[in-house]
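Input structure tokens:
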């Protein structure tokens, strides 16, 4: 955004002060006005402190606000430029503190929580820090009963819905994806043998998205804007180990979506290579 005031360095502001200045900046941007009383209510500060915060904001962003004696509020000027960079629409929509100021109700469709047990995560992190392998009882979806395996934690990954553990399975001699809720029990630790480089994890694949070919010109334009495409495409870098999860989350494994993969043949080749690499292994339905 042009002519924006320079963003103050975080080390120049106390955390609490920066939080209040950000609240002023956001209220001015979204509501067009800032009330001293709202700052007092939201942060539990005194009247003098709210006055100081508004003064400091005007010093850092001159020309952004003007005090209106009739409204008894600070109003955003026509040439307002956010002090802390481009605002996040998603953050504002989900901000509970802005609920009263929003002119429309906000409802988020619920979904089942796919939580990670913090005690399980803690055990895994501690083993990694200590250079230990863990004996884990793990339930796969292609076997009726869980089985024991020795693993060395390697990395964490998320598809935006669930967290996965990337681990070296000492029993099968390969890197595998594991889900935390399927770790039924732990039974022992031992010094971890050196695990080979996870070539699948280290490999990064470029995914090129474009509007579906069946869409009209007008439909393609809004999809390009929605996905922030440049030149009709959006490029995303995805680790090969997470590629299948990414494609499924984006519903790119279907033919009726609004976006499609422009380099589908390349990605199919990658996935086929992964399938061949783990043929006969625990490639399960996640």
């Amino acid at each position: 955004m042009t002519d924006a005031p320079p963003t103050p360095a975080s080390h120049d502001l106390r955390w609490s002060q920066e939080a209040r200045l950000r609240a002023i900046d956001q209220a001015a941007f979204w509501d067009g006005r800032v009330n001293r009383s709202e700052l007092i209510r939201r942060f539990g500060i005194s009247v003098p402190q709210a006055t100081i915060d508004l003064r400091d904001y005007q010093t850092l962003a001159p020309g952004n606000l003007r005090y209106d004696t009739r409204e008894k509020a600070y109003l955003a000027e026509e040439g307002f430029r956010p002090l802390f960079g481009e605002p996040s629409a998603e953050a504002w929509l989900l901000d509970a503190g802005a609920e009263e100021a929003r002119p429309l109700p906000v409802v988020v469709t619920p979904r089942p929580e796919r939580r990670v047990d913090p005690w399980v995560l803690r055990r895994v992190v501690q083993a990694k820090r200590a250079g230990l392998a863990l004996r884990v009882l793990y339930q796969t979806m292609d076997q009726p009963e869980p089985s024991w395996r020795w693993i060395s934690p390697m990395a964490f990954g998320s598809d935006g819905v669930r967290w996965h553990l990337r681990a070296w399975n000492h029993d099968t001699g390969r890197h595998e994806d594991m889900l935390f809720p399927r770790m039924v029990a732990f039974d022992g630790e031992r010094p971890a043998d050196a695990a080979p480089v996870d070539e699948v994890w280290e490999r990064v694949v470029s995914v090129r998205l474009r509007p579906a070919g069946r869409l009209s010109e007008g439909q393609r334009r809004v999809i390009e804007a929605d996905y922030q495409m440049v030149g009709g495409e959006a490029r995303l870098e995805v680790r090969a180990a997470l590629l299948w999860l990414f494609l499924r989350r984006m519903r790119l494994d279907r033919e009726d979506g609004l976006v499609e993969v422009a380099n589908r043949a390349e990605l199919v080749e990658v996935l086929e290579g992964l399938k061949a690499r783990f043929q006969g292994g625990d490639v399960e339905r996640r």
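Residues 10-98 form a domain with the Arc Repressor Mutant, subunit A fold (CATH 1.10.10). Residues 145 and 222 are 48 Å apart (CA to CA).
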